Structure formats: structure tokens, C-alpha cells
Amino acid sequence: MVPVRVDARGMRCPWPVLRLARAMRELGGGPVLILADDPIAPGEIAALAAAQGWDVVAAGEAHGWIVASTKV
């Protein structure tokens, strides 16, 4: 499945994480390619993913991560 792209570059936290959470909710668990260049974003994305039971992997794009639900 091709991830939905959420471009949050130029946004300061918490906006990238809020955009990710909304996309994951709307998609029922992703996958979502989130692009965020705020230096705090990687930690915030990881924390949200851990709290929700989502997997996060680095994407091939700079400042990009693919997030998907691990829940069945």
C-alpha cells in the first residue's frame, strides 16, 4: 500500500504530530509518510507512535518517516 503523504515541513511542533495523528485517524492506521523539518519532530513522532502502538521507519526522503499501525 502506498503511504499517504503529509507535508508538515516549515511547521513547528506540535503541528507535525497533530497532522500525523489526524491522517492516521482518517486512514484507520496508515501508512502515512510524514515530512517534518522541525528538530523536535522526530522525538514527538516517536513518542506518539509508541503511545499509539504504531511503527515508525525512516523514509528515503530527508526529514521523512513512514508511520503505520501495528494493531490488528
TrEMBL record:
Q: Which Pfam families match?
A: TusA (PF01206)
Record-linked InterPro entries: TusA-like (IPR001455), TusA-like_sf (IPR036868)
**Which ranges carry the UPF0033 domain?**
6-30
Q: Which domain of life is it from?
A: Bacteria
| CDD domains documented for this protein | SirA_YedF_YeeD
Q: What is the protein named?
A: Redox protein
- Classification lineage: Bacteria, Pseudomonadati, Pseudomonadota, Alphaproteobacteria, Sphingomonadales
